[in-house]
Amino acid sequence: MTELAPQELRILVAVAESGGFSAAGAALGITQSAVSHAVRGSEAKIGAVLFERGRSGARPTPAGERAVGHARRILRLYEALGAEARAAGRGTVEGALRIAAFRSAALHLLPPALERLTARHPGIRPEVRVVRELGAGAAGEVAAGRADLGIATLGGADGAAPGLLTGVLTQEAYALVHPVGHPDPKALPLLDWDENCGSYTRDWWRTQDWIPSATVKAEDDGMVLTMVGRGLGMAILPELSLREAGDSVEITDLGPGRPVRRVGYVTTPESASTLAVRALIRELRSARA
Fold first, then answer.
1. CATH homologous superfamily of domain 91-169+263-288?
2. How would you classify the pairing of strands 57-60 and 51-54?
């Protein structure tokens, strides 16, 4: 297979992000026909159809999703090349550092690490995006090339995502949260949100016959805590979420069999070798210690 040139990679990413050949051409300052020609050439080189064409635009096929993810990651390495070379010459670490994290991790794990990181390396420019930990979540942002490092929940037997490097930063125990002074908190409706159930807690939930099947859904863990504080129900929350608990809620330990989830960083092998990502991982580990 003939290798794709950087401009061909940029075109693939632009088509995926803009949703069409014309829009991609406008974003890149080239003609629609040039975009179409480049995509056809890339498909011929790769040996797969990368985009479904239609009246509404162009959408990546499964092969296209993989190709675009790799294209983003390769282009990111081109960007890092200059920053890494300058850093080596000056003895500094600099450049953009793209981070994806779920809400409570972005609120409580990242700030102290980023504070130390930017104090040591003022040339680093963190760009933090909060993503919902549903589906691919923060790890998916890394795999798709939209983030250099993600803070994610690590599930499965070994916590590893295919093709990505991971490391555990903390283990969070879940606890029962209920209105202060309620005589029978387990009799209250369960407040929950979509991100709260994963492989690390599912077995525990199945064995708890006191948890009602009917639940009240909220947008996120912060809203759940607010609703608990208003006396609208009880909830089962992990430790990071509990850092926002106010005086109107009470926290009760669920005992030795309580569910526990692992939270860690996710990055790619190539990003893991860059100075900025290595520096951030050191600070995240330091915060854990």
1. Periplasmic binding protein-like II (3.40.190.10)
2. antiparallel
